Amino acid sequence: MPLIDPFLMQLVIVPLVVIGLGLIVAIRSKKVIVKVIASPLVTLVLNMLYEIWYSFSFDPNIGISFSSWNIFLPLLTFALSWLVVLKDMPDELKGTN
Fold first, then answer.
1. Which of 13, 20, 26, 91 has the most neighbouring CB atoms within 10 Å?
2. For residue range 76-85, what is the model confidence (pLDDT) as tens digits?
3. Is the Cβ–Cβ distance between 5 and 43 less than 8 Å?
4. What is the pLDDT of residues 5-38, one digit of tens each?
């Protein structure tokens, strides 16, 4: 019997962890391209690794199946990392005075 409910794990804990780690990449990196591209990739890879692990631990005979979280979570991380880029951008480049 699992310690954490699988629904809670997939709907709350995993998204918060993978998006959080993707945003940490965006906040810690210096280059804009790394902030915008690497953070969704980190989110995608971590979520795919979780789904592969979950597929094999639940029933190894079923095989690997990916959910729509692999599309939604990186897109959300991309939008949030874009906000990080805009926050770090100087006012002269934003077009506001």
1. 26
2. 999 999 998 8
3. no
4. 888 988 999 999 999 999 999 889 888 888 889 9
**C-alpha 65: how far from chain center:** 18
The amino acid that residue 24 corresponds to is I
The reported pTM is 0.84
Answer positive or negative: Cα dihedral of 33, 31, 36, 91: negative
Cα–Cα dist 95/76, whole Å:
25
Contact yes or no for 76/20 (Cβ under 8 A): no
64 contacts 51 by C-beta, under 8 angstroms: yes
- Please give the structure tokens belonging to residue 15: 């998204």
37: left (phi over 0), alpha (psi -120 to 50) or beta: alpha
What b/e string do you get for 40-74 counting C-beta neighbours within 10 Å, with b at 16 or more?
Answer: bebbbebbbebbeebeeeeeeeeeeeeeebeeebb
